[in-house]
Amino acid sequence: HTKPMWMSAARGVPESVLGGPVRDTSANDNVVYVRRRNVEAAAGHGALAEMEYERESLTFNRQWLRKLGADPNRLSIINVLGDSMVPTLAHGDAILVNEADRFEARREGVYVLRRGDELIVKRLRKAARKDHIRVTSDNPNSDSPGELALADVAIIGRVIWTGRQID
Hints:
The protein is mainly beta.
């Protein structure tokens, strides 16, 4: 297990994440456990967001999260459903959502938001009217919701990282 240990030390992540032995990390202040929710954010038509209970957690390096500007206590991981955010996000991608980072006109980006009972992931931009946001899909072949009133949506947080399985 020398390779996982070397890679672990170089990247500041637990050896077990890289295939090494599982070690007790309860005293390791450098590791953050991020809860994974059993819910999908639709990149397409909205998905009903009924079952938001927590599943397993994933571990991340605390310093790396700080470099991303993330609050380690306000993070969650959910999966993407659909293809309207391709090429940025694909169906099945795991996304790390910084729930402390709400949309501000100066911080445009990809966000998870709730519209009614639907949870969606879209790119948010400043709108012409101050009380609205521009909500778009990255996939040019997908429809975009357009401008929405801020009163009609709840912004869950900004997507700061994605991971996907490679087939």
